[in-house]
Every structure is written in C-alpha cells, then in structure tokens.
Amino acid sequence: MEHVWAETALTPDGWQKNVLVTVDEGRIASVTPDAAPQGTQVGCLLPAPANAHSHAFQRAMAGLTERRGPDPSDSFWTWRQLMFRFLDRITPEQVQAIAGFVQMEMLEAGYATNVEFHYLHHQPGGVPYAQLSELSDRIAAAADLSGIGLTLLPVFYQTGGLDGRALTSGQQRFGNDAERFARLAEGARARIAAGPADWGFGIAPHSLRAAPAGALAEVIGLAPEGPIHMHLAEQKAEVEEVLAATGKRPVEWVLDHLSPDRRWHFIHCTQMEPHETEGLARSGATAVLCPLTEASLGDGIFDGVRFLNAGGRIAIGSDSNIRISLAEELRQLDTSQRLRDHSRAALATPDHSTGRRLFDAVSAGGAAAAGRQTGALSPGLWADMMTLDTSHPDLEGMQGDTILDSYIFAGDDCMVRDVWSAGRHMVREGRHIHRHAIEAAYRAAVKDLRAAT
C-alpha cells in the first residue's frame, strides 16, 4: 500500500485541500480530504490522462521533414514519402528502442497510458516475421521497461485506396488480409494478456481508404469488448476520394453505415462540415485529437467549439510524436480555435475555465479511448496520477482551475514532477527512473537510422 498526500487535488467533487490518496495493488483504494500528511507529499495532484493516439516509430523522424522539395505544394502526402523510406530500414530492435523512448517522454509529460495505433507489422517488402506479432510484441517489451500503461491497437491495413489498389512498397510492411490479420491480432492479444493487469487491447481499422468496407465487420469482431479506433476525415484529398467512391463524405458514410457509439474513437476529424461535427458528437464516439501533428502536417483545425457544445467527447494524442507534451497539445487545441474564430478563451464555459474544461474532457475521453478504468482520482480506478510543482514561479499563489490554466497556457512539461501509472511511480522529480538506459538505447537506434535515410 502506498500513500500520496497533496496540498491540493482535483477530485470528482472538485478541488480539495490536504488530500490523502491510498493506492493498493495499482488501484486507488481511498481519497480522503482534510487529512494529515503522510507518505509521498506533493503540491498539486491530478489524474494522469491517456495519450490516446501514437505511432511510436515516427518519433525518430522528428526534425527530418522541415525542408520543401521541388513540389511547391508540399503536404501530408509528400511527408509520407519520407516515412516510407524510413520504413525500408527500421528493425525490430530499433522499433523497441524508439517505443521505449516515446513511452518515457509520455510519462515525463504527464501521460500515464500509451494507446498505440500500431500498423508496422512486417519486414521490409511485406514479408511476415516468423512470429506474426513480432513488432506488436516489441511495443509491449518497451512498456515492460518504461512502466507505462499500454493499450495496444493492432491496425488492419489492406488496400492503398477505395478502388482496392495494391499497397505501394512503402505500405507493404502494414498490409494484411482479414484472415492473416486475425492471426496477428490473436498473437498480440496473448502478449498483452501476459503483461500487467492494467494493459488493454483493441482493434484499429486504419481508415476508409485502407480497410475495405466488406472486411470491417469481421475485423471489428476481433475485439468485441475493446475500443475501436480509426483515422477519419483528416485530409482534403481523403474526403474527395471517399466522396467520389461512395457519394458520401467520410463522416457521413461512417454515420450511415457503421452506427458508431461509445466504443468508437475517430482520429483527427479535421475535415468536417457542421452537420457532420454535430452528428458525430451525438453518436457518443470520441474524437481523438493530435493538434501538434495536425498543425505540422497541415491537416486543418478540428471544430472543437461546435463539437464540445454538442456534447461530444474528446481525447488527446501525440500521433507522429514530433513533440510529446500534454500541455502543448491542449494549448494548441484551444489557440487554434481562437485564431480561426477571432475569439479568446474559446473553450471555456460559464462554470469552468479553459484549462479545466480541456483537462476534464481529455481525462474522461482518454479513459474511454484506452478502454481503461481511469480518468479520475476515484476509488476503484487505476492509480494513474500526475503532480504539478506548486513551487514553480508560474504557479505561485494559484488556486483551483487557475492552476490548470497556468500549466497549459503559461507553463510546460517542467512543471510535471511525479507520474504514477497503475500505481507504478515511474517519474520522480520530473525524470523517468530508467531514463539513462532508455535514452542510450534510443540514441543508438536513431543514429543508425538517420545516417541511412
């Protein structure tokens, strides 16, 4: 049993003082306000959200795509070509080392859980490994060391477009038909079942472009109780392709044919019309947003004001992992709304400040996207917790929701001091307890990859 005492803590009943949280076997056993100090003593205690969307291997590409090629219309599609060249070389050992570094950075940023949208499955050229789930197993092995909570989402990727065209050389490491994918997913599920009790499993049809409609029902059935994730309405070219092939825009098609509910989690959704935004919000599905990557790739701006005001759920992720920062993702989400609408405090409500509304939303939405019993400092949930250093100058004298506003809009990751994932105290005084070993393995992996790219 572990005790964590906080001067102030955000609980389901709001902000409370002198809060004692007791952790037993990875779960929160009790939350007691107005308690005497004991155990680990901290300034501000918060639930630690899930990072709801990550492609771990792309972390090694950060900084390599900021030059414009001969095509003046450089875009997501030209960025993707570098990713494909990267994939011609990356090895299982490098995948594990990079994933471990990503998970460590997530924990140091305040995330307790990695929801890994894992579509890198095979050897260069598309030849399967002897163990079909080899690279899924590598993600799990990285989490064994990093101590992060893990929800693994093997990704089904079969075609290069809605016309059923074959995968290009860069995509062949992703590809499976439904039968082989079912075997791969079973292997990945077994590896997750062998891990810590808090680990979870779900399924991810990659997108309408890559997952044929006829195979969707079979693939979705592979995780009858787990979350379902899919990229949706990210790029203008994607919208045009789906519209040409089906007569419907992507969100329209999904609402008409998949009847999404609270098990569904759609990534990006930056290309939606108002009626699609409101319809998706009413469905109960989560919009998983990755504002730093969406800005980097020029995807567009998610209509957060309309979606949240229609009762929609959101989660936050780091996607390409070009920068892993919980505070910056939330800041980018809100400031993009302000720039688009010429407004301020776009996502605040009469009851809650911007920071509080965002933090509450992504805590609850991230728990749903991870399929994880978390998202609040509440008895029975996993002890996913983070602390902020209230001695930081930008938090001096701050109380209540203003703590979150200052953290998100004036601060950064240096305010994060401690992080627990299912009771595992992996970040202490702002640093992961295994940083030295994880960083050394990452440096070796990316040195070889970058020299050859």
How are the SSEs placed, and which strands pair?
Layout: E1 2-11, E2 14-24, E3 27-32, E4 40-47, E5 50-54, H1 76-87, H2 92-109, E6 113-118, H3 134-146, E7 149-156, H4 178-193, E8 200-201, E9 204-205, H5 213-220, E10 228-232, H6 236-246, H7 250-257, E11 264-268, H8 274-283, E12 286-289, H9 291-296, H10 304-309, E13 313-316, H11 326-341, H12 354-370, E14 385-388, H13 401-409, E15 416-421, E16 424-428, E17 431-432, H14 435-452
Parallel strand pairs: 1-4, 5-6, 6-7, 7-8, 7-9, 10-11, 11-12, 12-13
Antiparallel strand pairs: 1-2, 2-3, 4-14, 14-15, 15-16, 16-17
Could you describe the 3D structure shown?
This protein has one domain: Metal-dependent hydrolases (TIM Barrel, Alpha-Beta Barrel). The protein is 37% helix and 21% strand. The chain contains 14 helices and 17 strands. The chain has helices at residues 76-87, 92-109, 134-146, 178-193, 213-220, 236-246, 250-257, 274-283, 291-296, 304-309, 326-341, 354-370, 401-409, 435-452; strands at 2-11, 14-24, 27-32, 40-47, 50-54, 113-118, 149-156, 200-201, 204-205, 228-232, 264-268, 286-289, 313-316, 385-388, 416-421, 424-428, 431-432. An 8-stranded mixed β-sheet has the order 3-2-1-4-14-15-16-17, covered by helices on one side. Strands 5, 6, 7, 8 and 9 form a 5-stranded parallel β-sheet that branches. A hairpin with a 2-residue loop joins strand 1 and strand 2 (14-24). The model has no long low-confidence stretch (mean pLDDT 95).
Produce a short descriptive summary.
37% of the residues lie in helices and 21% in strands. The protein has helices spanning 76-87, 92-109, 134-146, 178-193, 213-220, 236-246, 250-257, 274-283, 291-296, 304-309, 326-341, 354-370, 401-409, 435-452; strands at 2-11, 14-24, 27-32, 40-47, 50-54, 113-118, 149-156, 200-201, 204-205, 228-232, 264-268, 286-289, 313-316, 385-388, 416-421, 424-428, 431-432.
